[in-house]
Amino acid sequence: MKDSAPVLYPKEQVGRKVTEYSEDHTLSLPKELSEFHAWILETQETANYTISTFQAKSLVWLARLAGAKHVLEIGCYLGFSASIWSYAVGPSGTVTGLEFDPEYAKIADSKLAGLGIKNVQFKIGPAADSLKAISPSTPYDLVFIDADKSGYPGYLSALLSRSQPGSTDRLLRPGALIVADNVLRRGIVADPSDANPHAKAQAQRALKAHYGKDTDLAALDEFNKEMASNKRIESWLVPLWDGVMVGRLLD
Ligand SMILES: C[S@@+](CC[C@H](N)C(=O)[O-])C[C@H]1O[C@@H](n2cnc3c(N)ncnc32)[C@H](O)[C@@H]1O
C-alpha cells in the first residue's frame, strides 16, 4: 500500500521548481488579469493577502467544473480573486463580493472597471451583516470564504441556515461549492507543535504583540471540523497553498 503522506520534495528549492513547473502546465489566465496580480505584488505592502496566480488558475478550473454562474466572495481585498471569478463565470454570470474595508472596495471597483469587468458588485460592511441582508434572485453556485479567519465558523453557519431545503430565499443552491482559503495556516492548524517551525514563529509573534492565544487557529480548526462532520456537506481539505477547504452542499 502506498503511504498517503510521502515526502516528495526533500528540499524547499525542489518544491519551488515543482510548483513553477505545475503552474506552467496549468490553464492560462488572461494577460490583463496576470498584470493586475503583478501590479498588486509590486505596489502593495499587504500583497500577500491576495491569492497566487497558480491558486487563481485552480479556482477557474474548479468553478468551470461545477458550471458555476453565480459566485459569492467573502473578503475581496483589491478585487483580484473577484476578477478571477468574473473570468470563470463569463459575462453572463455574476459575482457578489462582501468586503469590510471601503478603501479596498473603492480600489477594487476602479481596477475592475478599468479592466472592463461589469459583472462584479461589491457590498461594503462586515460580512456577517451582509450575509443577513443579501437576497440573490438566483442562489449562488459557489461561495469563496477568504475574510477574517476567526469569522469562518460564523460564515458557514449563516450560509447553511440561509440555504435550507425547500426555502425560496436560499443563498446557496443544492450542490453548491463552499471553498475556503487558508484553512491550514502554514500547517499550524494541523501541527501546532514546535516541530513545525511556522508554529514556533507564530507563537513568538503572538507573545511580542501581546495578543496571546491566536484565536484564528482555533476558529479554523472549528470550521474544518464542522465542514468534515456536517451531514449536509461532503468535504475535501486540499493541502495545497495555505490549505483550501472544498465542500459540496448536498441538500
Ligand atoms: C485575504 S484578504 C482577501 C483576498 C482576496 N480574496 C484575494 O484573493 O484577492 C481578506 C479580506 O477580508 C476583509 N475582511 C476582514 N474582515 C472582514 C469582515 N468581517 N467582513 C468582510 N470582509 C472582511 C479584509 O478587509 C481583506 O480585504
List the helices and strands and how they pair.
Elements: H1 12-24, H2 31-43, H3 53-65, E1 70-74, H4 80-89, E2 94-99, H5 102-114, E3 120-124, H6 127-133, E4 140-145, H7 152-161, E5 172-181, H8 197-208, H9 215-229, E6 233-238, E7 244-249
Parallel strand pairs: 1-2, 1-4, 2-3, 4-5
Antiparallel strand pairs: 5-7, 6-7
Helix pairs in contact: 3-4, 6-7
S-adenosylmethionine binds next to α4 and β2.
Describe this structure in words.
With 251 residues, this protein is of the alpha/beta class. It has a single domain, classed as Rossmann fold (3-Layer(aba) Sandwich). The chain is built from 9 helices and 7 strands, in the order αααβαβαβαβαβααββ. It has helices spanning 12-24, 31-43, 53-65, 80-89, 102-114, 127-133, 152-161, 197-208, 215-229; strands at residues 70-74, 94-99, 120-124, 140-145, 172-181, 233-238, 244-249. It has a 7-stranded mixed beta sheet, sandwiched between helices. β4 (140-145), α7 (152-161) and β5 form a beta-alpha-beta unit. α3 (53-65) runs parallel beside α4 and α6 (127-133) runs parallel beside α7. The longest helix is centred in the last third of the chain and has 15 residues, at 215-229. It is globular. This is S-adenosyl-L-methionine-dependent methyltransferase. InterPro entries: Cation-dep_OMT (IPR050362), SAM-dependent_MTases_sf (IPR029063), SAM_O-MeTrfase (IPR002935). Keywords: Methyltransferase, S-adenosyl-L-methionine, Transferase.
